Amino acid sequence: MYRLAYVSTAHSAVSSPDLQDILESAIRNNGESDVTGTLLFNGPNFLQILEGPEAAVSEVYDRICVDARHSHVVTILREKSTRRIFENTPMSLLALESEAGTLPNGLTASEELDLYLPSSLPAHLRQMLKSFNTRKI
């Protein structure tokens, strides 16, 4: 099992329908490739974790890197693992509030990120995802 995480900057014109299209495409394509994961969006940025066979994850990531809906893609994690964390989820999308920007109209922020994260999520990945939620409390 291979895991990859990246962050990127959304183009300012990313809309709620764009995000729905991203999610639907990811579910369809990842399901066919045996890739699972999660995608977080906070208005200006994406953070995504992909996991699965290394070749499949690399192929999905290569397609993501050339997607015109975002730029400045930076890999922040590559690791091997003995087990899958996002077992039953080809892809999930969580929207989070951010001090750096606003969410598109029609998109509701997930209030409690922990409620959406698998209980088996390792501490280093949990911290990475939680640190992406930059809303003041």
Shape, principal axes of CA atoms: globular
- H and E string: EHEEHEEH
Query: Any idea of the CATH topology?
Result: Alpha-Beta Plaits
The CATH architecture term is 2-Layer Sandwich
Average of the residue pLDDT scores: 88
Give the oligomeric state of the chains in this entry, treating copies of one chain as homo and distinct chains as hetero.
Answer: single chain
CATH class: Alpha Beta
Which structural class do the helices and strands define? Answer: alpha+beta
Got a strand count? Answer: 5
Tell me the helix content.
25-40%
Main sheet specs: 5 strands, mixed
Spatial arrangement of strands, main beta sheet: 4-1-3-2-5
Treating each run of at least 4 consecutive H or I residues as one helix, how many helices? 3
For the record, give the distance between the C-alpha atoms at the N and C termini, rounded to a whole number: 36 Å
Strand content: 25-35%
**How many discrete structural domains?**
1
Provide an overview of this structure.
This protein has 137 residues and is α+β, with helices and mostly antiparallel strands. It is 29% helix and 28% strand. It has helices at residues 16-33, 54-65, 123-132; strands at residues 2-10, 36-41, 45-52, 70-80, 92-95. The radius of gyration is 14 Å and the shape is globular.
List keywords for this structure.
five-stranded mixed beta sheet, Alpha-Beta Plaits, alpha+beta
